[in-house]
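Re: weekly structure request thread

Next one in the queue (333 aa):
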Amino acid sequence: MTKTYHVTTGGKLYLAGEYAVLTPGQTALIKYIPILMEATIQANPDYQLSSDLFDYSVDLYPDKQYALIQETVSIVNDYLVKLGHTLSPFRLRISGKFEKNGKKIGIGSSGSVIILTIKAMAEFYKIHLSADLLFRLASYVLLKRGDNGSMGDLACIAYEDFIAFTSFNRQKIRKLIAENELLTVLTADWGYQIRPIKVTLPCEFLVGWTGTPAISKDMIELVQASISSDFLEQTQIVVEQIEQGLKKADQELVSVGLKRAGQLLEKLHPAIYSKTLQELVGATKNFTAVAKSSGAGGGDCGVALTFDTKSSCCLIEKWQQAGIELLWQEVLA
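Done, posted below.
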């Protein structure tokens, strides 16, 4: 009987530092969201890739819809051959959609699909991948595709943790990819930092979904030209404040820092804060809570930290009244 292997992975949301982290050396705080996607993989006479996002399956012959999965398989196959493995075809099925009512939720679906595919293949070939190597392989896939993101989402999803991610020079690594073979790139010094955050501040982490999808790639292209050295400097200061506040249980430092981080984004570009995102943030007024947009903005999700149970309940109620759906709720400490 053919053995079937199962793997899962989740998504992510930015607490602070989005947009700034597109610049090498900047830091963002990113929270793992365990809303899971699943993959099953088993030996098969031929390659067969399927996803419940599409109503058909493919092999490795290039297909536009399946390009992300196919390119991931190709790169991992290259890695396996270089490690001395004999390749074997398989059937890979990915299930789970980061969407509601047919609308995409911006918690990292493309990054999750890449990492899910890599994890499934590692399980199939019985090889151990550290969280860091998983991150590098996934980043390699996106960098080779010309993706314009920071790769922070991949770091968070690979580590399955609340992290502080300091970004690397992606142009430098793209050049490395173009001029070197895979193993050389994977073992090079990329210049990033990934630090898991141990939260000691008693608080709840809430995610509100506006119901309006936003395309991160398009938002980045729209906003990137507005990023100034002052924005980067101010954002780095507040990100460090928030990280320290979470670690040292300093509620004031976290509240002031998150509020300031949101103001910096609002000032950066008017497209970031949609009307509903403004309502999401404004709903925290009169509660011991603070909220801001998360990720690319323009719709999609916002995040909040609440510091007592009553504030959590009242905020959720106000969000519901504004048509904002509670997507995730978690006690951080």
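The chain has a mean pLDDT of 95. The longest strand covers residues 27-43.
Next request, please.
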